[in-house]
Specification:
Length: 658
């Protein structure tokens, strides 16, 4: 979730006076980071993953599944450094009180086959250890992208009263939010800066008895007057007819995801890897689609991304280029006299520009064809610090955002040794990729300090550790293949933006086409762009060899090195065969031979005997769905065969994945 500081946070009306101070010092901190690490080279290809779980209370007698909001004691219980070190696990709080973020304690070695095969074991350990520390015998840890009935009646355990002071939501209580003071402050300050609550409207799936397109959701409590100014917004136009309306940060930041971070050998290589993954990001989102239900309704989309985008959108009506709601100001609560610009996107969205210097890469200036506004003062400052114009533009674009949470005790920092101000800006720009500079201590001789890293962020979390390991391993190997073979994946960023929209559609993994560059030879040349299905991108077409082929080439190139890790050729062959089960899974899913998680969930609901063809996911349907997914989490044989199909199930058993 980003930077967690201890201390006393300012409200938005206090912190807005410190925004310029934070940005000025953040730029100085960034400068010192670059000066320290710009000459690092030959860093190892370390990498890591981050998975997020939900704690769900399963009441078998009442047939009711609820989010557990009183199990967050696990963070204190699992904070023992000895346990983390011995088990190679690390746990971190997330936005939701019902959420647990878990990572490996140490990074994986991207040059080691054994480490790729260790990922699932480590994920299983994280899940099992956290489950062990839950006190409620009916609580289950599940890696679920969205909880189906968040925001409906009585969806938390224990029960909590809807409508707290930070979100002022019509649907969710304050108690879903992490107790750390940063999180309710972040929630409140986004609302205060914006000048109104966030408004998330997701298209409703249309079934036989679904309400009409011109009808507002009848479950919205339009007459509530607990917070009169905020409560009125739904009826003033914030809620759209024919949509699923949500009004709180928790609907987005209460979603779970899978992220991976790779360390490149040096700065230039990290910039190239970032660029190469830009158009991979929407494909990864589509390929991992797992979220067809929001606030108890089937949605006419398969993923969470735009929900989170709306959930943290602190832009004022003027910045968004829309009319304010009645009685609301166009410029929200921005400090009077501050210059205000139009900002095309939320601070949680897709990336806007390539990072590599066009004079020294495959990049062309014409490819950066999106409106990507910048903080002009930050841009000039970074140029004066010696940043090239492309890199300066990247960070100056991040600096159009205000810091949302500022702690009184952290206003003044030593910019040569601390980087909280920079991370305050960096960590609240939640984009499909994150370019992660080292700290001021990461000088070339300090190899124990992390170097230049790239984080791939759009993937949805999957139900099983096997799937999450497979996605993590595949995209890390793809990144390694990119670094080995240096394909030219550059195309106009506007087409990547269109791909992000496409990735949201129902069954985009099998039904839609994505813009993709097919002349990927390692030379600078005009892009030949075709529209390809996910199957064609991954498996290849007459114009492009396919991402799976690229990954297999990387595996072949590493085989001689990897074989030295094993005492016999038989052991090595078995290990290589096990790795290729991950690749096979990616192949089966991207070809449509096994369904996406989103399709599996949608079909379960639609075929449920209690579903009324009205797009509503009731308590009983939700319980049965989660009961099925818990069985899958535990690798119950019949459920595994139903979900993965007989061929892959055989491989999972043969190689002892389950």
């Amino acid at each position: 979730m980003g930077l967690l500081s201890l201390g006393t946070p300012y409200s938005w009306f206090e912190s807005r006076s410190y925004c310029d101070h934070v940005k000025k010092n953040a730029l100085e901190q960034l400068y010192h980071c670059f000066e320290a690490a710009k000459n690092r080279s030959d860093d190892k290809y370390f990498w890591g993953d981050e998975v997020e779980y939900m704690v769900v209370h399963m009441d078998s007698k009442a047939k009711k599944a609820q989010l557990s909001i009183d199990e967050d004691h696990v963070f204190a219980d699992l904070a023992d450094e000895k346990i983390c070190d011995e088990r190679d696990v690390s746990y971190h709080p997330e936005y939701g009180r019902f959420m647990i973020e878990a990572t490996p304690y140490r990074p994986y070695d991207g040059d080691s086959l054994s480490h790729y095969l260790y990922v699932q074991e480590n994920m299983d350990t994280r899940r099992q250890l956290a489950q062990k520390y839950l006190k409620d015998p009916d609580a289950v840890l599940i890696s679920l992208t969205t909880f189906p009935r968040m925001g409906t009646d009585d969806f938390t355990f224990p029960a909590a009263i809807v409508g707290g002071p930070s979100a002022k939501s019509l649907f969710v209580p304050e108690e879903i939010t992490n107790r750390h003071v940063r999180f309710p402050t972040l929630t409140a300050n986004i609302r205060r800066r914006r000048g109104c609550k966030v408004a998330i409207n997701i298209p409703l799936y249309k079934d036989k008895y679904t309400r009409k397109d011109d009808e507002l959701d009848p479950t919205i409590p339009f007459n509530r007057s607990k917070f009169p100014y905020s409560d009125a917004e739904a009826g003033q136009g914030a809620a759209l007819p024919g949509h699923i309306y949500m009004d709180a940060m928790g609907f987005g930041m209460g979603s779970s995801c899978l992220q991976i971070t790779m360390q490149a050998q040096d700065l230039k290589t990290a910039r190239y890897l970032y660029d190469s993954l830009m158009n991979i990001a929407p494909l990864a989102l589509s390929a991992s689609a797992s979220a067809p239900i929001f606030r108890g309704f089937l949605a006419d989309q398969d993923v969470r991304w735009n929900v989170i985008s709306g959930a943290v959108d602190d832009r004022t009506p003027y910045e968004r280029g829309v009319d304010p709601l009645p009685g609301h100001g166009a410029k929200g609560n921005i400090k009077e006299g501050k210059p205000v610009i139009r900002i095309p996107k939320s601070r949680y969205d897709s990336v806007d520009q390539y990072l590599s210097d066009p004079s020294d890469s495959f990049n062309e200036e014409s490819y950066n064809d999106l409106d990507s506004p910048i903080n002009e003062e930050a841009y000039k400052t970074l140029l004066s610090y010696g940043f090239d114009s492309t890199l300066a533009h990247h960070f100056a674009h991040l600096f159009i955002r205000d810091p949302i949470v500022i702690f009184n005790e952290r206003v003044h920092q030593d910019n040569t040794k601390e980087n909280d101000h920079f991370e305050n800006i960096q960590s609240t720009n939640w984009q499909t990729l994150r370019f992660k500079p080292p700290t001021q201590f990461a000088t070339p001789d300090q190899k124990d300090q992390p170097g230049w890293r790239v984080e791939l962020r759009p993937m949805e979390i999957s139900i099983t550790s096997f799937e999450n390991a497979a996605y993590s391993v595949f995209f890390t190997l793809l990144s390694k293949a990119i670094l080995l073979f240096r394909p030219n994946f550059y195309l106009p960023v506007s087409l990547i933006e269109e791909n992000m929209v496409t990735a949201h559609r129902v069954d985009s993994i099998i039904k839609d086409k994505f813009h993709f560059r097919v002349n990927t030879e390692s030379v600078k040349s005009d892009a030949i762009i075709k529209e390809l299905t996910i199957k064609e991108v991954f498996h290849g077409s007459s114009d492009f060899e396919g991402l799976i082929s690229l990954v297999n080439k990387a595996i072949d190139s590493q085989s001689k090195l990897w074989s030295k890790e094993f005492s016999s050729s038989q052991e090595f062959d078995h290990a290589l065969g096990k790795l290729k089960v991950y690749i096979k899974f990616i192949g089966l899913r991207t070809s449509g031979e096994i369904p996406s998680t989103a399709r599996f969930i949608r079909d379960f609901v639609i075929k449920h005997p209690e579903y009324k063809q009205d797009s509503v996911v009731s308590d009983s349907v939700s319980y049965d769905l989660l009961e099925k997914l818990v069985k899958l989490t535990k690798y119950e044989r019949d459920t595994v065969a139903e979900f993965f199909g007989p061929e892959l199930t055989h491989d999972l058993e043969a190689f002892q994945f389950i």
